[in-house]
Amino acid sequence: MPSRISDRSPEQIEVETNCQALARSGLGFFRYTRYEFFQITDIGSFKRDLETLATRVLTARDYGSSRRVHGVPWDEVQQFAFSYQGFHCIGLPERLLSQFPPEFSELPIPPANSTFPSETIHLLRCTYSVNGPGLAPPPPAGTKLLFELDGSLRCHRCEPFGFRDGLTEPRIHGWDGNSDVHAGELFLGAKSASGQVSESILVPMDLDPGNVLPEAIYSPCNKDLGRWGTFLVFQDLEQDVSGFWKGLHTALVQAVGPASLEKLVWAASRMIGRWPSGWPVSLAPDADPGGEPPDEEFSFSSDPNGVRCPFSAHIRRTNPRDVVPNRDVELSRLESARRVIFRRSRVYGSDAFDPRILLPPYKIGLDSFFGQLSAVQGTRGLRFVALNASIRNQFGFVVSAWVNNPSFGGAIESPDPIIGYRSSEGQSLFRILGREGDIEFNLPRCAVSIRCSGSFLLPSIPALRWLASGASTASQ
After folding, report:
1. Structure pTM?
2. What is the rounded distance in angstroms from the CA atom of residue 180 to the CA atom of residue 187?
3. pLDDT tens digit string along 227-283?
4. Secondary structure (3-state) at 215
5. Omega of the bond leading into 111 within 30 degrees of 0 (cis)
6. Phi and psi at residue 310, in whole multiples of 5°?
7. CA-to-CA distance for 109 and 465, rounded, in angstroms?
8. Which residues partner with 239 through β-bridges?
9. At what angle do helices 261-272 and 366-374 cross, to 10 degrees?
10. Which residues does the chain have with pLDDT short of 70?
């Protein structure tokens, strides 16, 4: 959530006045979300409608200051993002399209059961609602709805495996206090942790006769299409809850013998790096303290050997903080800041079990727990949304160099135990170091599957207005 208006710097006020609210907040006021994927079929009709829609998009400043948008009370709000193919469809000139990074141009992948599996996705609309997804507005004019996915925030704030989620929101230096993360890790055309300006999409002055876009800060003879915007990575992650817990139990029994629910939770918490309550195991290595977890500004430098939190744990893989392999503490903090992503995810599907089962004093046994899992029907998982200024250097790097790297931090055949790729069951190891001896077991098959994915640009409000104008299709 953005800080109070009175605390904001002029730069922050400028950004939050012009960026879509999702860029700065998970929009927790709205419990329900619908993600709709469209193809643009009539460019003229779409642009005319977009001109109106752009005036109604919730900005970060609106979200941080009131419960009204242009005087209208919030019931639902919309946020819009374009794929590379969408920009191409509406006629963005080639000299602008060529500036987008190669990884952004990859085709979004729809779900296998999509009504239009071979159609190209041009537009993502995220509708956030207080009262439920049934109130989603009509499609933008000149578009065809290809498929839609729903998500929500749960009162218990846990993801489907039963662990508290959504705890880490990177703070931006000078905006949310002192931090190694800078605005350029989130927004295009802004200064990043490395001291460099994040790449953006420069627009010649002659393509913006209406003076809608901001000037490019470090290229004053150009306008900036990307400024106050951010790249959005969407993944539909299906989680096999029963497979996760039963597979872990089988692996643990083979390694150490009979295991209770408490022991099972202990092992799963080492794999994730947190107890079900959200407490980091690096701060509470012996047992889940329960209650509200502490401030997220903890470090791994007090656990350099991975005794309390294994090197291969999920949260240590995705954000190694101040202990990046082959880096000292200062360089580790800088490296982690450069690779950070801003998550805006929501869960879907019914709960497989009450997450309180996983909290001490563990009032049920394994048979009862597995019985509940066996009765589960339907699918569940995470509508994963990550924002970053560079897909290649942030999301892409984290996945390839940290999550899927089997030797990260000196590990042997051990990718991320939750989402890391492994070719087959029993081919990856997970090691837990301990004062009374180490435990090592074969990881069960990955219980998280990607059902659809895509990369989009979440443009600024001025960029939406410019895209709706005829200037965006000026002479190629």
Report:
1. 0.95
2. 15
3. 999 999 999 999 999 999 999 999 999 999 999 999 999 999 999 999 999 999 999
4. strand
5. no
6. -55, 145
7. 28
8. 448
9. 70
10. 1-6, 66-73, 133-135, 423-427, 471-476
